[in-house]
């Protein structure tokens, strides 16, 4: 049965209502990352609106990198499996020369003690469990990133260190494939700090060395926070790059 839009439900433009309906279907995993969504004509019939209205809704979702248009093929749900998305959320770049290709080395994956601040960032109750992960990323054999990652146990149930180590690609692609969790945006706080002894050894740096601290909260559909990570970057030969429009 076609979906009927309630005209009293919202004063937003019709295309914005269609956008919200499509987003709700993405959130419900009706169309998974990498899969094609129905055509504009099919969606127009489903929602009882014009094809132009659907097109405008899809245009907005594509501009937000939630959908990807492919000429002659259709519209697809964005995925972190795409090669050009490999470093969408990584802003670290070499000062000179080659592209940054990082190699992962996971050190730890455990169910952690309650952490009030992390629970608050993830909008969890104090009783809900958290995974704590440690990872080192290296470039050309040299460690340059140390990360502490926090995930809610309820969403990532059964996660193990072996599963992380055996995954060949990006962590966000792993979340997509194994836990139907697609990261759509992130918020970061950046500041300079000095290395503690427990982390300095992982980066082959002296205790007290200056590094860049980047704390990120990543969100899935519906603005739901699902990951907190704190990354410490060795910026001796690298810099944090952000392009502003």
TrEMBL record:
CDD domains: WHTH_GntR. Keywords: DNA-binding, Transcription, Transcription regulation. Residues 12-80 form the HTH gntR-type domain. The keyword DNA-binding applies. The keyword Heme does not apply. One of its GO terms (molecular function) is DNA-binding transcription factor activity. Signal peptide: none annotated. Gene3D superfamilies: Chorismate lyase-like, Winged helix-like DNA-binding domain superfamily/Winged helix DNA-binding domain. One of its GO terms (biological process) is negative regulation of DNA-templated transcription. This is Transcriptional regulator, GntR family. It comes from Polynucleobacter meluiroseus.
């Amino acid at each position: 049965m076609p979906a009927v839009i309630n005209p009293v439900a919202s004063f937003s433009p019709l295309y914005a209502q269609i956008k919200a309906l499509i987003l709700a279907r993405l959130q419900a995993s009706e169309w998974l990352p990498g899969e094609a969504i129905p055509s504009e004509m099919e969606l127009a019939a489903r929602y009882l609106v014009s094809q132009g209205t659907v097109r405008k809704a899809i245009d907005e979702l594509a501009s937000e990198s939630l959908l990807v248009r492919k000429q002659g093929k259709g519209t697809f749900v964005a995925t972190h499996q795409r090669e050009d998305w490999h470093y969408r959320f990584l802003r670290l770049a070499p000062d000179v020369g080659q592209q940054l290709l990082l190699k992962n080395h996971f050190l730890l994956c455990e169910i952690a003690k309650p952490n009030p601040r992390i629970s608050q960032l993830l909008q969890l109750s104090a009783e809900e469990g958290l995974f704590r992960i440690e990872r080192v990323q290296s470039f050309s054999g040299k460690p340059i990133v140390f990360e502490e990652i926090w995930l809610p146990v309820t969403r990532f149930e059964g996660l193990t260190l072996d599963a992380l180590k055996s995954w060949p690609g990006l962590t966000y692609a792993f979340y997509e494939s194994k836990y139907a969790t697609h990261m759509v945006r992130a918020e970061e706080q950046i500041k300079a700090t000095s290395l503690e002894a427990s982390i300095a050894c992982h980066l082959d740096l002296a205790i007290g060395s200056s590094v860049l601290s980047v704390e990120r909260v990543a969100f899935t559909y519906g603005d739901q926070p699902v990951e907190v990570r704190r990354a410490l970057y060795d910026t001796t030969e690298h810099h944090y790059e952000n392009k502003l429009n």
